[in-house]
Amino acid sequence: MKKLFIKSYGCQMNVYDSSKMADLLEPLGFGTAEDYVDSDMVVLNTCHIREKASEKIYSELGRIRQEKERMKQSGREMLIAVAGCVAQAEGHEIFARAPFVDIVVGPQSYHRLPDLVKKVANGKRANGLIDLDFPEISKFDSLPEPTGGAISEFLSIQEGCDQFCTFLRGSLYSRCGIF
Questions:
Q1: Model-level pTM?
Q2: How far is CA 26 from the centre of its chain?
Q3: Regarding beta strands 173-174 and 158-159, do their DSSP bridges make them parallel or antiparallel, or are they unpaired?
Q4: CA distance 32 to 18
Q5: What span, in angstroms and rounded, lies between the C-alpha atoms of 51 and 109?
Q6: Which residues pair with 6 in a beta bridge?
Q7: What φ, ψ does residue 3 adopt, rounded to 5°?
Q8: C-beta separation of 79 from 114 below 8 A
Q9: Nearest CA-CA partner of 4 in 89, 85, 78, 76
Q10: Inter-helix orientation angle 113-121/12-25, to 10°
Q11: Residues 105, 87: contact at Cβ < 8 Å?
Q12: Which SS3 state, helix, strand or coil, does residue 176 take?
């Protein structure tokens, strides 16, 4: 099984999104790892509201880059994805400042992460792959069913934010459609 390390920054919604990303990548052979050392894929699921959020991400990416280069010297590849609100806010700037990043995916597009990983694996990575769309279809329909393996699991009944994060996560949307 390939190792997947996901680090969440910020709000509880990012913790939920990280859990769902792990679920989405499991069918591709990824199991979770405790840190990025020797991981086949690293996802930084980011928050843009926290103080100096972007700079903290770039600093973390610098440390991860060293591991990616070490692994490459031994014949292994590490995929790096930046997800979440910093990804949404910074977009292509991430590739400009950290060209070793493979994927940038916003908080409303992470359900397409498996497709992006497959494209990278097939060599379609010109300058990195980016998906920052706010799809009109419900992301809830694209998520895998809970496995039932945990004592408790998250069940998302709403997405987005009507507070500080609206411009990054989109407006509040409920599974029930009631607000």
A1: 0.77
A2: 14
A3: antiparallel
A4: 11
A5: 24
A6: 43
A7: -90, 135
A8: no
A9: 78
A10: 50
A11: yes
A12: coil
